[in-house]
What we know:
There is one protein chain. The chain is α+β, with helices and mostly antiparallel strands. The protein is 35% helix and 26% strand. The strands form five sheets. The chain has an eight-stranded antiparallel β-sheet with strand order 1-2-3-16-15-17-13-14, covered by helices on one side. The chain has a five-stranded antiparallel β-sheet with strand order 4-20-5-18-19, with helices on one face. Keywords: Glycosidase, Hydrolase, Membrane, Transmembrane, Transmembrane helix.
Amino acid sequence: MTLTTAQRLNRTVLLACAPFLGAMIWVLVSNFSLSLSLGDSGAGASAPSAPLLSEIAAEADAGLGQAEAVAKEISVSIKKVSELYVKTNRNMSAIMTTAKAQANRPALIYDRRITRRLGAVKDSVQSGKLTAQLFSIRAQKFSGYALKVKLKSAGAMTMALGKDKLGGAETTLAAVKRTGAVAGVNAGGFADSRGKRYPLSTTVVDGKYVTGFEPSYNDLFFVGLSENMELIGGEFSSQAELDKKKPKFGASFVPVLRKNGVNLPIPVKWRTSPVRAPRTVIGNYKDDQLLLLVIDGRDENGSSGATLEEVQMLLTRFGVVDAYNLDGGGSSSLIFKGRIVNHPSDGQLRPLATNFLFFK
């Protein structure tokens, strides 16, 4: 059994006091176990004489005096040990506080470094569940926003179906207001059928497959959060392969942009159709913080927005480890603290099948 620092200190105090307590017990036993049987115990035994009683009383007085002296020494020693215990405990607490601060220092330095790459914080939210920081992005041919999120609890992020039902659709703003989220961004792709909007391919909500598992095809990937609050994603050929990642929620789209700090080749179709467009990307840092990029554009004809190669350049500059391209175009939407942050290319928010949501 592993002992805590406090338990080890308590045992040390007990061991320090043990000799003194043993001495007291020995004095009491040796000096006060007086024999009252001074003669034969049978009938006719004579009573002790006055001189003998006097000797017994004197011996008792001497024993009491010695016991009192020993007791005082023990009291002083226990007081010293107690003071030492309090002082040591206080010093240990200070040491633990310092050690904890030193242990967190590399993480703080890393966070400052990646934050500095993003620029000045435009707005932020901090709570027991998460820390979210909003940044503006300005490039030569496009502009947009970045949201860096540090998740602190399992309830800080989720993914919701449109109106919480299969086939439903709602804007990111509507989903944020309905759930009480502090922020939201569009998630996976979708397909329309018979007036309803269904999430594309493999979709997981609350740890359950919404329409079953579908093996990856045509560069489709799955991306979401695991039960351990880690971003998971990639192409999966079987449900068992994805189940090993313990997905809590996630959606599908195309293509994977970056993996293990390396930019991946962009599929030919996605280099030209369209060349430029509004984009939404989700990625992570090596400390598991999330980065969401939303790039603006004026229309769906490729006359504005960013190419996926340009997005990869941003991700490299920002130091992102893994990154996945989410549904873009008119679907790209970022909500923060109850307001629409970006400029949707449709001129208004598009109702979507899935949205990533964040809670404070």
